[in-house]
Amino acid sequence: MPLMTAPDTAPTTIGTEILNLLLPHHRTTDPNRASAEDFPHQLHRITDFVREGAPVVLTLPGFPCKSPNPAKTLGHLPDMGERLSLTFLDSLCGEIEKIHPPGARVVICSDGHVFGDLIGVPDDRIDAYADELRALIGKLSLTRLSVFDLRDVLGDLPHDAKRAHVHDRYAPTLDALRAEVRADAPTLALYRGITRFLVDDTAGFTGTRSALQRECRRRAYGVIQRSRAWGELIAEHHAHAVRLSIHPQPAGAPKFGIRLLDAPDAWTTPWHSAALREPDGSWTLMPRARAQQLGRMVHRDGRPSHFERSRDDGQRSLATLRR
């Protein structure tokens, strides 16, 4: 009598193949390469979509707004960094479609309004960024992507009211979060990373460096509280989705950290940096001030888009280093 094949074998195999497509882009601080079996949470959710014959839905909180620090970014609207990142996400869904015909889609959960008051970015700039993000997705025909933000949940309520509603309903208490930072190494790393970003993003602070660091440590707790609250809201509206993260995540975590573009460290994102095109056609994210030293600015659609380094620029930079 022939052996019976377990009914879940095929979906699990395809789910593993899909996860293997994500693994080369895993954003983590762990130097060891993980395998699909190290991500049981994600494998389970992906396999459920495969078993149902449905598109794999991935939610990605991020793309909030540009950093307010002009030394880091080219302006307050999406530029080449976002363009490349969105194209990458859509193409990744296309690769999934080759092994799972229903395909995949990424819901970009744009979270700028969730903590705009804590990061010092006006709400009208956050609206402009999110609107341009949607327009860019349409212009590039990235049909596997969509944008979800507080307007989809709370409509035209004032921004402060939206933030208060989300915080009050979903955020952990400050005492609980402080205890977690003290006891949990990944949460401590997240807290320190966000504090560093807040310090770097601050422009025009008139106090001392130590005063700025104290202020940013305080705001970092608020950013994490609101980020957790936004995550809970997303889970409520996209209950079965595979949760991606733009922050580094260890293997086995409930969230899968994803790297959108190459960058010098695991924390760099398109909205905290500018894109530099290398002579070989590759792209790297880095602070605007650094990219400006290495290449020339390129405009697109009438505004700054990215920097481009020629072979001559590279030779000049190397000669400068040798002096």
Widest beta sheet: strand line-up: 3-2-1-4-5
Number of helices: 12
Average pLDDT taken over every residue: 91
User: What is the global morphology?
Assistant: globular
Q: Roughly how many Å apart are the termini?
A: 78 Å
Number of strands: 9
Instruction: Report the sheet with the most strands, covering strand number, pairing sense and barrel closure.
Output: 5 strands, parallel
Residue fraction in strands: 5-15%
Gyration radius (Cα, Å) is 21 Å
User: What is the string of SSEs from the N terminus onward?
Assistant: HHEHEHHEHHHHHEEEEHEEH
Query: SS-based structural class?
Result: alpha/beta
Percentage of residues assigned to helices: 40-55%
Q: Show unreliable segments.
A: 1-7, 317-323
What's the topology here?
Elements: H1 9-22, H2 40-52, E1 56-62, H3 80-99, E2 104-110, H4 112-119, H5 123-139, E3 145-148, H6 150-154, H7 159-170, H8 174-183, H9 185-201, H10 209-237, E4 242-245, E5 256-257, E6 274-277, E7 283-286, H11 288-294, E8 296-300, E9 303-308, H12 311-322
Parallel strand pairs: 1-2, 1-4, 2-3, 4-5, 6-9
Antiparallel strand pairs: 6-7, 8-9
